[in-house]
Fold this sequence. Notes:
The structure holds 2 protein chains of 2 kinds. Chain A is built from 3 helices and 9 strands; from the N terminus they run E-E-E-H-H-E-E-H-E-E-E-E. Chain A is an alpha+beta fold. In chain A, a hairpin with a 5-residue loop joins strand 6 and strand 7. Chain B has 2 domains: 116 residues, 3-layer Sandwich (Rieske Iron-sulfur Protein); 275 residues, Naphthalene 1,2-dioxygenase Alpha Subunit, Chain A, domain 1 (Alpha-Beta Complex). In chain B, 28% of the residues lie in helices and 24% in strands. In chain B, the strands form 4 sheets. In chain B, strands 13, 14, 15, 16, 17, 18, 19, 20, 22 and 23 form a 10-stranded antiparallel β-sheet that branches. Chain B has a 7-stranded antiparallel β-sheet with strand order 3-12-11-6-5-4-7. In chain B, a hairpin with a 5-residue loop joins strand 15 and strand 16. The longest helix of chain B is centred in the last third of the chain and has 15 residues. At the A-B interface, strand 4, strand 5 and helix 3 of A face strand 14, helix 9, helix 15 and helix 16 of B.
Amino acid sequence: MTQASLDIDAVDESGVPGVFPPATELAAADPRFEAARRWLLREATLLDNLRQREWLGLLHTDLRYQVPVRVTRWRTDGLGFTAAMHMDETFGSFEGRVARLETNFAWGEDPPSRTRRMVSNIQVHQQTDDPDRLNVVSYLLLARSRWDNPVYQWISGERRDILIGSPEDGYRLIRRHVLLDQSNLGTVNMALIL
Amino acid sequence: MTETPVRPRPPTDTQTRSQRYRLADGTSIGDLVDLDARTVSARLYSDAELYEMELERIFTRNWVAVAHESEIPRAGDYVTRYIGEDPVIVARDRAGAVNVMLNSCSHRGMTVCRAEMGNTKFFRCPYHAWSYDAAGNLVAVSAQKEMYGEDGLDKSTLGLMRARAEVFAGIVFANWSPEAPSLLEDLGEYAWYLQMAFGRSSAGMEVLGPPQRWTFDSNWKVAAEQFAGDAYHTVMLHNSLCELGVFPKDPTAILHGVSAGTRRGHALRCLDMEPVLASMGVSADQGDLLQQMPPPGMTPELAARLSEVLRPDQVEALAKTPPVVGQVFPTMAWVNMSLPDAAGGMVGGVITFRTWVPRGPERMEILSWTLVEKDAPEELKQATARTTIQTFSDSGIFEQDDSEAWSAIQRSVRGVMGRRRKLIYTSTLGEPTVEEGGLHWRGIGRDDTQWLFWQRYRALMLESEVQS
């Protein structure tokens, strides 16, 4: 298995970090599109139901996962993504984070938030040079409810994922960029997986 | 160029001294920090009247960190930030100086610069197109002759309101008060430590991008008093990391060290490296310790060059009792510590400074910068940034529990009975020793430097200084 097409550090011409390798868009009727869609829904179900340990099973061990800091910029200066990160993760760091949750001393999420991940605007492309790799774009709207506070903490953004596998054997996440919309997050912390 | 001085207003005839230092209900502000009992009134965390006084008496008269100079390396580079609730522009001019000025047009108050970062020759107000240079001078007024006549407007008096700006160890501080001492005078003995943490190489440090920003329900002082020396909380609030073996199970191993601070409320913790090194199988008298365990973000080669900028006593302190966490009064906190990342790997270490920005009596914003040594190899820079983000940041496995605690404290002290609570700072190691690095307390970290924070806070709210 090669990582050659993981150009996670590159930036495209509009300043968006992480460049997808060349690919062809798949029709919604394509089984790979449906497999990617179901993968995203399963992920949301696991994460919204505190099944983070099972979520690790959706990940490739070579995973890189980044959430860049975004700033307000003039229109001519691009979309405002920066080299700074809110999260910069690997499979190993997520294993550590999940193990920490399981210590029952990870107070930032204990009691846990009640969350609802709404996943939409799904687009799936098959990579030209590697039919086992799908470029998957989805929008995420995450409602986070803490304690008895009736005011939600919202996180919205676009996820740019690379899934590796096949409809028969299942897919694993090997790369993710979460492109947030807020420059100043209205949330007590980023203790959630996006 | 115009300077609009911000002066402490002395008590007037109609407002006697005693009124000025009392709240509307008659409470004496001095009583809220009880110097004899070493308690602090929880009312300080939610009171709107006190909050307005803080904005005036603390945030217009002290050195507030706003940026790192590597964010604006070239002429015309700028970022926009806050001092208290006042938005400011931090810009580098053509002479290379860093300027900090109120982001509000001298004409009608419009936000002159509405982007967070960029590069520009002039800041042109979008409202009526008054234009300012990077030092805040008003250089052009649109249709000036038509609107104001030949001599109707003296541009030289209408620059943006400027704060004093000074840089130490790469960190840009600003102060509105022309009467305040210089940054170096204010830091005093603390500069000796701050240089070890952020100014220990000839190339200096650089930020990896702009700061993270996040905002939540807690008073700014809840975070500030913790970073002023609360070693105690680590063993419980961060117990998940003890459970995982990231931190030693024996709390004394983390709590042991030296607390240092100054009467101006600056505070820090130094870690006793002997037990840390022993746990790694390194004896403290075994060769050059800095070669075996370089400071965060440094290679052994960089560590060998520490003496290019640090004095011998600083180099020795970095090896044996390095400063690991601290705070410059009022709101610049920092971490400089070797810690494992979320995967348990020990690479790079943690280098961050952050500011607590007041956003109302019960709300704060955190800005958190990630730093690396400019001369470090690219791979080490990335590892340092990753370790920092995974530990001390909005998503950090340490800090996500801190911000949870800070908002929980807010919830529990804001009610009528909660506000009457007295918060306890009675744990003390006694009288400090006075040395070059300021006031020192050796041993298990107690409340002593946090008390320095509250003593200075109290003095400033009474518009006085702490007596030593």
